[in-house]
Each structure stands twice: as structure tokens, then as C-alpha cells.
Specification:
Length: 352
Amino acid sequence: MRDKLLFFIKSLKDNNQITGYDEAAVKQAIIMPILQILGWDVFNVNEVKPEHSTGGGNVDFALMEDGENKLFLEVKNTGIELEKQKDQLLNYSYKVGIPLAILTNGIVWWFYLPSLKIPWEKRMFCTIDIIQQDAEYITDRFVDFLSKENVHNGTAEKKAEEAHRRLQIQDKISATIQEVWDNLTSEPYESLIALISDKVKKMCGDEPEHSKIIQFLQDYFTSKSETDKRRKPNKQVGVSSTQQYGKKSPKKPIFGFYFKGKPYEVRTWKGMLVKLCEILFSIHHREFVDKVLNMMPQHFTKTRNELREPREITNARIWIETNLSAEATEKRCRELLELFGHSKNDLRIKTN
């Protein structure tokens, strides 16, 4: 099954026509073959039921076992932005008590645990992009979460819960790291002074006076602030609060961003840069590491002490420089998108 699915996924990657498929073509040329390879009897309406009524509306496919709904699958054409479609599917799934739900336009697949009692956007546990991601990775995720055997015996739900748990842990770690750093680098610097004092004493044997550390920190952050001000773009009138790349944006507080329609919560510009790198790594894997180290060596490194303000990219085992102004951070994100062949419109920034 896996080899056959891998071959089919690679054939989709080579098919330039799929980006223009309407909903019927997506179902016929992508959805049904994938389901069939994964063990589903697509010609048995008691197993793969099309236009299944949920009581409040219809879902494109209900995957069933002995008359019991196991998974809802909603299909759109390849030009549809999934972000605007998720609420209906998740509503249906939640009310019926479906353990797993998938929203797809044939190319991008969003996997959900709809019964979780948390905001809709946080119920997603996996994203597949047939064009952008590695074929091996895609194949493994389909087998894990959508094969008939795993869905029927409950393995798919267990794997989904574990994947969701790992995502929550990584998000929590990223947010906590940022919070710790913000606390360390905010006046009056007590925690940072104690940390620096301890490190200096261990390295040279003598404990520095706190007044000397305070003076160093004040000089450092004053210099950094002046540098950021020099880089600040001219104020523009009428700029949308949701910024698209290619436009200069003022240094407003950031509240999150969308990548390919999927929302991500961040509270700092640096957090957005790191999160975008983690997303690109999940898509491009080894290629991401090789490219950024070779083509952006002044910004990425395997050794954290080579950078002024390093942040680790989760699972990639490399570090990125985040000692940047908001404008420079946005520019760096744009450079990364272009480097890996993504559209500048794939990313939108929420600033209010």
C-alpha cells in the first residue's frame, strides 16, 4: 500500500494540471484514488458515503465502519482558500461527535480533531501540501491518519492526538522562550544581571559590580534602539492592518500571521520569523537547512554563539539571528519565501 501511494503522490507532483481542477475533478482524480489505495472501498456507499447528511447540512464524504461515522472529508476545488471553509466542517463534525475531520482542496489537506474543546484553529494537528512537501512525508501522514485500517482500529485517532500534543508542546515552548527572553531583557534587568554576573564569575573568576553590568545593558539597548529607529520606514497612510509582503509596514505590534491561509499566533516579530522558519523546515526538511546555511550564512548557523541574539529552529538543529528590527524581520521573511519558491501572498501579517 505504501509504495503504491508514494508512486501516486509523486505522479500528482508531476501533474501540472491539478492546480486548475474544479471540485468534481479533485474528487475523481485525487480523493478517490488516494482513498482506494489506503484500503477504502470507494464503490461501497456503506463505507465511503458521498454527500452525507449531518442534520445541519451535507459533508462531501463520510468514511464509515458498520454504519458508524469515523471521519468526515470535505472537498473544495484547488483555487479555494481553505481558511474560509473550515468552520462549517468543524461545526458538523463537532455536533455529530466525529473523532477526525479533513478539509482539502486536493493539494492542501488540513487534519482536525474536531471534538477538542479548544478554539477551532487549535484543533488542527497536521497539514499536508502535495506540491510543496516531501513525497515520503506525505505518504506516511496519509497512512497514519487516513488508512482504513488505522481509522477503523482507532490507531489514526491515537496518532492524531499524539501529533496534536507534540504541536501544543512546541508552541508552548516557543511562547515560553520568548516570554523568558522578554522578561530578561526588560528593565530593570534583575534576572539578566544575576545571570550575567554568574557567567562572568565562572569564566574569569571575579564577580563584576552590578553597576558595571547595568551600564553595559543600558548602552547595549540604547544602541540597539537607535539602530532600529534609523531603519524605521516612513509612515504610510491607508495601509491595511493585514500586511502583505512587498509593502513597507510600520512597526506595529504583531498579533499573528497566516501562511497559506493557516493562522499562527505570535506576539513578536522575532516570534514570527522563527515560526516561519519552522514551517518552512517542516515543508522542505533537509533542503531548508542546506539552503539557508549555504545562501544565508550570516543569518543562520549551527553554533549559537556565532550570533548576537540566536533563536533555535525547532527540530532543524540550527540557529537564526533575531537581532533585527521589525522592518528587517519582515524583509528576512520575504527573502525566505522567495528562496523556497513561495508566493509573497502566501503570508499575511496581523498587526491589529
